[in-house]
Amino acid sequence: MITKLIEKIKQKKAPVCVGLDPMPSFIPEHIKIQSYDEFGAGLKGAAQAVLRFNKEIIDNIYDLIPAVKPQAAMYEQLGPEGMKVYAETIEYCHKKGLIVIGDVKRGDIGSTCEAYATGHIGEIEIGSMTYSGFDTDMITVNPYTGSDGIIPFLNACNKYDKGIFVLVKTSNPSSGEFQDIEAGGRALYEHVGKKVAEWGSLSMDGYYSNVGAVVGATFPEVIKKLRKLMPYTYFLVPGYGAQGAGAAELKYCFNDDGLGAIINSSRGIIAAYKSEKYKNKFSSREFAEASRLAVSDMIKDISSAAGRGD
Amino acid sequence: MITKLIEKIKQKKAPVCVGLDPMPSFIPEHIKIQSYDEFGAGLKGAAQAVLRFNKEIIDNIYDLIPAVKPQAAMYEQLGPEGMKVYAETIEYCHKKGLIVIGDVKRGDIGSTCEAYATGHIGEIEIGSMTYSGFDTDMITVNPYTGSDGIIPFLNACNKYDKGIFVLVKTSNPSSGEFQDIEAGGRALYEHVGKKVAEWGSLSMDGYYSNVGAVVGATFPEVIKKLRKLMPYTYFLVPGYGAQGAGAAELKYCFNDDGLGAIINSSRGIIAAYKSEKYKNKFSSREFAEASRLAVSDMIKDISSAAGRGD
């Protein structure tokens, strides 16, 4: 799978991923009103508003980017109707040729982990047929339970040509509380990083592995260390834009081949029409055009960090 | 919320939770056939089979136990139809007076974490009304991102009188890979445990806190240490039965008041009809009666561990 992602990144000349995290406050009133009129002002109406919002943004940006990252939490908060729209968003993105990274941060053990793998990057047998619950290409996973919590995902990667990104160092201020704890001269995130590289060796796909890592853009020194520790691991990098990191912080994410990382922005793109930078140029009805301009600007900004990658 | 759980535990004289983890292989053929006939042999048919299976088990055990713990992964693997059945299972359990612990092991940061809290133990405003996506009373959460990943859940606990169980030491063989890493003379799970106790002090509900901990039954020495480190923290204890731990391992989970822990069994109860112990006594059509006997046997076994608690 990582080869497919890399091909798309090269084709679009954009190591960029757009986070589809439709918080209710991001969705313009006219979409809400229209959706509530049709489906009622309840969970279904709210979920359908999300779907319309997503589709209009995707229609306006799909040609510029290789991948999107829908954030499961934003759909889950709308209950089963929200999960239906999560699945429909994935399907719509696939129709537009995008790689879909489900930001689910799942993690458990044994057969439970297998069930998550089945639901998000695998297939389930029912009668004589197989079905996909949520048909994402890659997902984010949590390493806290150790190998028992990763191997089932790894097996699904190999069986179905899919990928995962394991949380190594997250972008939030308190990420250090546990991730920076030092043991044997190394921080926990380094111990996790080393394991991710090991797991990754069991699902190589060309130069890089299908097992990637989530590494926050907000800690450049950490990125430097991890880039060295795990040369064959693709980084999914949150924290650009709204969370404060810019292109300067990002240069260490990339290998000398200009590859090795995909930078995510969520609210910076999908809520661009509300931001200081773009709000005077676009009305709330032009939210998707604002997203397109924000994507273009982001790609220009990131390209300088990625260096000689093509 | 923890007071409500404790009252139910005392009322049923059973510090026991039944895990509703309906793996496809647990569901008897006659239920599958009936459900596929009615809803088709696809994701909907499979999900409806799960719902029937759950309901028949709940009907047969609800009077014996205080709480159930549906495992989200088992529903998620059936896509949106599965999540609908997850919500319906929660609703059905509530009608039977059970406390419902959603085993979702969610964890993220900031506004994303808020969305998970909203979806599982909170409410979302739509128009002039509020709605619950998945109306669980308590959920399991993952601590890897630190306080930023816990505070939003904590706020929901306080606002809606709900509870969480934070993963501290999981029951699986590889849990030590990261959780046992030693830093400053203490294992990571102790660092996490200490933090859980701190977070817990922000949501006290009587003697105990609404912030509990997941502590695997498979490591008695660890339980001893954690019980001392976090006296006001309720433990949700997986690993009993199918994962190998018995009553002897469990005695350290409980405080001198006979409280402080709720022991979970999943497949040992819901797939009892397939186990060595019960399979000769029950046919697959009597799966729910087998579950009832397994619950009774488990309560007897656990009571000896809980000591003088009533």
Automatic annotation (TrEMBL), chains A, B:
Domain annotation Orotidine 5'-phosphate decarboxylase: ranges: 15-282
Enzyme class: lyase
Membrane-spanning residues: none
CDD domains given in the database record: OMP_decarboxylase_like
Catalytic activity field: orotidine 5'-phosphate + H(+) = UMP + CO2
Active site (catalytic residues): 105
SMART domains reported for this sequence: OMPdecase (SM00934)
InterPro entries, sorted: Aldolase_TIM, OMPdecase_AS, OMPdecase_type-2, OMPdeCOase_dom, RibuloseP-bd_barrel
EC number annotated for this UniProt entry: 4.1.1.23
Pathways involved: Pyrimidine metabolism; UMP biosynthesis via de novo pathway; UMP from orotate: step 2/2
A Pfam entry, by short name: OMPdecase
Stored NCBIfam families: pyrF_sub2
Protein name according to UniProt: Orotidine 5'-phosphate decarboxylase
Organism per entry: Johnsonella ignava ATCC 51276
